[in-house]
Automatic annotation (TrEMBL):
Gene3D superfamilies: 3.30.530.20
Domain of life: Bacteria
Family listed: Belongs to the AHA1 family.
Name listed for the protein in its UniProt record: SRPBCC family protein
Domain Activator of Hsp90 ATPase homologue 1/2-like C-terminal span(s) in chain numbering: 35-151
Pfam families named in the record: AHSA1
InterPro entries reported for this sequence: ASHA1/2-like_C, START-like_dom_sf
Length: 219
């Protein structure tokens, strides 16, 4: 069993704005500590054999200036790779360039006072105002919370969720995603949104990730 509340509370969440080549971007930022040395966390993030064990299989020319592709998900260019502290990539989701979601993802690692690794990820993308009003940061943030959960389980015991799709539909998975959506709603309030705006966005995000729980999300 996963300690859902503990995992949710282990992550610090922020949302803001930052200009990127595609335009004025909205950002989601997650930060948490892992009880592992920086070098091990870096290796788990950049070794193709290890990435597929906790996130998604990756292919491509995995070097600065090269390209990567996550199976069934985003791809892009590797902009910066400075072992074992900094990785920055473009994040392109969608096959049609005219409609693709184009952004940037930057991962920063640092050593904590007790030898732990402080992991920080910032995802910036141009998001239409109407979409932001509908979903807020949770549309992207819940996905990254799932990734951080997977990385934590892998670093802790070398294992990962055996069938992520089945787990997402399980009671445990739906509780995690609902709690994540609510946490991103709180981050939206902290950024200046009203509680009503945040509640609407969190509810829509929960219904997107957990369609069967519409009634629970509205309760």
């Amino acid at each position: 069993m996963i300690d859902i509340i503990g995992e949710i509370n282990a992550v610090h969440r922020e949302t803001g704005r930052r200009r990127i080549p595609a335009g004025e971007g909205r950002t989601v930022l997650v930060r948490r500590s892992y009880d592992a040395p920086v070098e091990d966390v870096w290796d788990a993030l950049t070794d193709p054999d290890r990435i597929g064990r906790w996130f998604l299989p990756v292919t491509g020319d995995l070097r600065p200036g090269g390209n990567y592709q996550l199976k069934g998900n985003a791809g892009g260019e590797i902009l910066r790779c400075e072992p074992p502290r900094l990785l920055k990539v473009t994040w392109v989701y969608g096959e049609d360039p005219a409609e693709a979601d184009i952004g940037e993802v930057e991962v920063r690692l640092s050593s904590g006072p007790g030898g732990e690794t402080v992991f920080e990820l910032e995802h910036a993308a141009v998001v239409p105002d109407e979409r932001w009003a509908e979903y807020g940061p949770g549309a992207t943030g819940v996905g990254w919370d799932l990734a951080l959960l997977g990385l934590g389980l892998y670093l802790r015991n070398g294992e990962s969720i055996e069938d992520p799709d089945a787990w997402d539909r399980s009671p445990e998975g739906t509780r995690f995603m609902t709690a994540s959506s609510d946490a991103w709603g709180a981050a939206l309030v902290a950024s200046g949104a009203t509680p009503e705006e945040a509640a609407k966005a969190a509810g829509n995000t929960t219904r997107f990730y957990v369609p069967a729980s519409d009634g629970d999300a509205d309760a």
